[in-house]
Structure formats: C-alpha cells, structure tokens
Design a protein that fits this description.
With about 60 residues, this protein is mostly helical. The protein has a domain of about 25 residues. Helix content is about 75%, strand content about 0%. It is built from 3 helices and no strands. The longest helix has 28 residues.
C-alpha cells in the first residue's frame, strides 16, 4: 500500500530526474499516448464485431458432399 510519504518521495525523484520544466511536457505526451491507445483498442473491437462470419464450410456442408 502506498502512503503519502511514498508518493512525496516518488515525486521528488521524478522532479530531480526530469526537471520541473519537463514534467508538464511528459504528462501531455503520456495523455496523448493513452488517448491513441484507447482509440486503437476501440477501433479493433469495432472491426472484430463488424467482421463477417468465417468463410470456412460448416460440418453439415462437408458431410453432404
């Protein structure tokens, strides 16, 4: 379980590593990446549900031949 002290230490480390000026830029790019990922997942599920059924013959058709 993360406590408030753990979060503060984590934020201090992030500020030291990346600098205060770069954090908003990183947060913006992270938000854009998440938006694109959600869009891709949504498009993939839409395509999967709209795909026509498989073109392979069913077992009943194979026995009739």
């Amino acid at each position: 379980m993360l406590g408030s002290q753990d979060l503060i230490v984590g934020l201090v480390i992030v500020v030291v590593l990346f600098g205060a000026k770069r954090i908003p830029e990183l947060a913006g790019s992270l938000g854009k990446s998440l938006k694109e990922f959600k869009k891709g997942v949504s498009d993939a599920t839409d395509e999967a549900s709209a795909a026509p059924p498989s073109a392979t013959p069913s077992a009943a058709n194979a026995c009739a031949a």
